[in-house]
Predict the structure.
Amino acid sequence: MTALQAAVFAAELYSSAHPTAEMQLHRAADLLGPLAGSHGDLTVVFLEDRVTFGDRILPACKSLRDGIGRRIRQRGQDFLRINRGFQFSDAQFVATSLANDAPEDACLHSQGRYSFGVLALAPTKPETSTSTDSNDTNIEQQTDQLKNVWQTVSSGESESVQGIAGIVSDIQLALIGAQGVLPPLVTLKRFDEYTFVHTLNVAMLSAALGEAVGLNTQQTRDITIAALLHDVGKEAIPESILNKKGRFTEEEYRIVQNHPVDGARMLFNAGNVPDIAPIVAFEHHMHADGSGYPAFDRPRRTHLASRIVQVADVFDALRTVRPYRDAMPVDKIVGIMLEQRGTKLDAGLVDTFISTLVMSESPAA
């Protein structure tokens, strides 16, 4: 990143074609390209007081913050993502777009191997929404991408979950700065695919709760992926049942109850999923007191990841408008979760969720 910044400075003094700039551009590309290839993508976030990569503050934080960070933020963006295949020409485009000779209000164009973006996925409440059309488009794209991943998983195609990496990165970005309050959740607004919008929220809440209980970066990432896939078994449920507004018949409810088993089977056969993904899919409707489904003869201690996703699932399901009821206020949801604490929901996780993520001054209240 410091090499890329040096190239920006050289482009300002001379041009991006000057030997000094080219030397730094080659260095940046030679370092960032292979790193992105091994990691899938690299996202560097430029905040007012720091520059981060993942959960780390970069050593050259102050220099980067006041250098290319200031230029990126002046143009209304918060992060730079380097994708697989990043090369010299991409570094040259980035440096040129950030040089002083470009207007400060100039749009930062994204290319196939790099992109700029803003942190917030969406506001929590639609009535106070300040989101832009581009933000709506981003959520639509994420919803469509998640839907495509579910379809490939259910069809048994190989390499089925590779497309999920970008969604996970966006969720990680949404959590930055959200410690101590609910992360910015996606509202339905004009998105009518409840299942997929709800799933994005469950993944965000699961990631935040995972961090709150002290899981490391890789464990949190695995839980995020598992949360994004926990309801994939619903692909086997006919749409006429899945979107039904009234009560299910006994037979319809039996079909719905099969989706954890179907989802686990799909994920066992899928490529590139964390080991916990089929476990979470199978267990996310099993309760601490032995109720729920799939049914067992005696209470079963479910995996921590399943319990985390379950808490997140209950919270977002209750806070979302459904055809048969309005969204509940947060204080009422907290009351219901406290009633289920230690019976249907893990007591410790409920306590952590409420004390760490749900606060009276939260915008979701």
Remarks:
- The chain has 15 helices and five strands.
- Residues 2-117 form one domain.
- The two ends are 40 Å apart (CA to CA).
- Confidence is low (pLDDT under 50) at residues 122-132, 360-365.
